[in-house]
Write a structure and sequence with these properties.
Pfam families: DEAD, Helicase_C
Number of strands: 15
InterPro entries: DEAD/DEAH_box_helicase_dom (IPR011545), DEAD/DEAH_RhlB (IPR044742), DEAD_box_RNA_helicase (IPR050079), Helicase_ATP-bd (IPR014001), Helicase_C-like (IPR001650), P-loop_NTPase (IPR027417), RNA_helicase_DEAD_Q_motif (IPR014014)
Helix content: 25-40%
Protein name: RNA helicase
Distance between the termini: 46 Å
Family: Belongs to the DEAD box helicase family.
Strand order of the largest sheet: 1-8-2-7-6-3-5-4
CATH class of one domain: Alpha Beta
CATH superfamily of one domain: P-loop containing nucleotide triphosphate hydrolases
Largest sheet: 8 strands, parallel
Keywords: ATP-binding, Helicase, Hydrolase, Nucleotide-binding
Number of helices: 24
Length: about 675
Amino acid sequence: MAYNTRAPQGGKKNPTKGGHKKVGGPSAKHRGYQPEADAARSGKKPRWSSEQRVANGLGADRPRGQRPERGDERPNWEPRGKDARASVERAPAARKRDGGYGRRDDRDDRGSERRYGDRPRRDDRGYGDRPAYGDRPRANHGGDRPHRLAGDRPQRGSYGDDRARRDDRPARDERPRSDADRGQRTERTRYDSDRPRREDRPRYDDDRPRYDDRRSSSDDRRGGYRDERPRRDYSDRPRRDYGDRPRRDDAERAPRPMVEDVVLERLEAQATLASDVEGVTFGDLGLGQNIVRELAELGATAPFAIQAATIPDVLSGGDVLGRGRTGSGKTIAFGAPLVERLLTMQAGDNKRREFGRAPRALILAPTRELALQIDRTVQPIARSVGLFTTQIYGGVPYARQLGALERGVDIVIGTPGRIQDLSASGKLDLSKVVITVLDEADHMCELGFAEPVTEILDRTAEGGQRLLFSATLDKGVADIVERYLTDPAVHEVAGEDQASSTIEHRVLLLDQRDKQEVLIELASGPGKKLVFARTRAFAEQLADLLDDAGIRAESIHGDLNQSRRQRALDKFSNGRVTVLVATDVAARGIHVDDIGLVIQADAPDEYKAYLHRAGRTGRAGKDGLVVTLVPRNRRRRTEELLKRADIVAEWTPVEPGDALIEELAAR
DNA sequence: AAAAAAC
C-alpha cells in the first residue's frame, strides 16, 4: 500500500475551511483558472503531491492511481555535493498568479499608478485576511498611495501610520540629505580604510594554508579568487575550541554552571574529522541494505562526517547530541538510523503493520516547512523498509492527519503545536514513542518552544531514546538534556569554522533611507536571492517594493496562511520568482537549491540567527554570499553580532548606484 | 521586541 500516509483524506471538501479561522481563500474562479502562458512555458506540468494539492486548496481528491511514482518526485534531502538534486518538491508550474483579485481588493486602486501596470498583480499575497493588518483601513491608500520605487519616497500617512511601525523606519520626507550626512559618509570611508579589527579576530589561515589565497584578507576578496580556491579539506584542521565560543547573554547570566559545563565538555569530547570517515560506507555504519540503497537514490552515496559520527550511536540506542553546520546532512544523520532502529526493534513483531498502531518515533521541528522537508527525506527511507510516516502540523485541516493516524503510522514528523493538540485530545498516542528527535534542538529549547516540547516529551515512552540536532547546538539545551536524556553521546564535526566555510560575508554600511534602493539594486541580478527581514510587515513591504520595481518577489512569514507560505516557497524553489523575502520562519533548516545570495535587509538580533540565515546559501560545498545591510546607527551592534557568530566580514560604506552593489548582485 | 508554534 504505497503512500498510505499520504493518501487523500477528506474528499472534495474545501480544505481551507477547517484550517484557517479567516474568511475563505481566493474565489473558485481563482482556484480553477489555468494560465495558458504558464502551461505553455513549462510544457509538461509537474504533478502535485496530495499535500500540495491540499495546501493549494485544490482538494485531495485525486484518485490514488494518479499519484506520482516516487521517481517522479523530487524528494528533499540534505544536499550531497555534486550529486545534489533539487530538493524542494516541484510545485505546480501552472499556477495562476494574476487571476482573481479577491484577496487584494484593498489594493485594487493601486493599479492605476503602478509603473509596471502591465505586470501581473500581486493578488496572491492576501493582506486582507491577516490579523496584523486587520485594522488597516481598506483602500485608504488607493489613490494617493505613492509608488515605492526608490527615489520616489512614500508619503507618510499613506500606509506608514498604520502599517509597519518600525523604529528605524526612515522618515524620508522629513530628512533631507544634510551636510552632516555627507560628513559622516566621509567618516565612514575613513573607518573602512583604517579598520583594524580584522587583525584582532581569529586568523585561521595561519595553520590552514589552503585558505591563504581565499578569504584571509579583504583585498583578496575583490574577485578572481574563486577559481583558484582549493577544494575543502578538513584533514588537518584543528578541533574547534568551544572555550572561545561566544555565549548567549542570558545563558551567561543564568547560573547553572554544573550542567552547562558538562554539556560543553561533552561537545568538545567527540569531534569527528572528515578524514576519519573517508572510505566509510553507510553499510559500514550499520544501516541495512534497503536503506543504503534508498540513500543512494536520494543522492547520499557516502556518509558525511556528521552522519558517520552519529549513526552508530543512534543505532546502539543511546541518546545523541549532534552538531553539524548548516547543510551538512543532519537530516539523514538522524533519519536513516532512526528508521533502521525501528526496524530492528520490531523484528519478529507480527503486529507491526497493525491498523491504528501508535507511532514509535517522533521528529519535532520548529516550522511547518521544515517538518515537511524532513518528511521528504525520511519518508522514502522509511518506505524502503515498509514503515510509514505522517506529517502533523498546524495550519491545515485535521481530517487528513487524523485519517493517517487512524490507519496507523510508525513515524510522526511535525511541529509542536498540532502534535500537542492532537496528543492532548487523545487522537495521537505518544506513549509508544521510543525515539524522539528534536531538530534545531537549541531553538526548540528556547522560550516559547520549550514548554510544548517538554509536554510532548513527557507523553513519550519513559526512557525512550532522544536525539538532539542543530547547527548551533549549545548549552541552551542543557535543561532538556538533563531532564530527558541519559548519558548522551555528543558529536560534532571538527574544523567547522568560518575559514572552512564556502560562504563569504559582507556588510554594506548605508544610510537608513537608502536601504530600500540598495536592496532593489542588490536583488536585481538573475540568481536566486533570499532576503531576510526582521518583521512580517517589513518582509511584506519589501516584497511589494521589489515587485513594484520589476523584480519578481514573494514573501513568506507567519502572517500568511499555510498554502501561501508553501506556494511562495515552491515558487522560489522552482525559480518562478528569483527573490523570496522572509522572516526567520525561513532561517532554519529550509533547503532551496542554488541560493547564491542571502541579503539581510535587517541584521538579526542573535548570532545564531545570523548563522542559520547565512546557511541558506553555500550549501553542499557551493559558494555563497551573505550581504547584510546595516544603517550607521546599528554598526556597533552588528559588529558585536558578527563577533559572536565568529564571522569575519568585509565592511563597505555604500550609496545607491555604487558599482560594488551591482557586482555583488551579479553573483 | 519579534518570530515561530494550535484553534
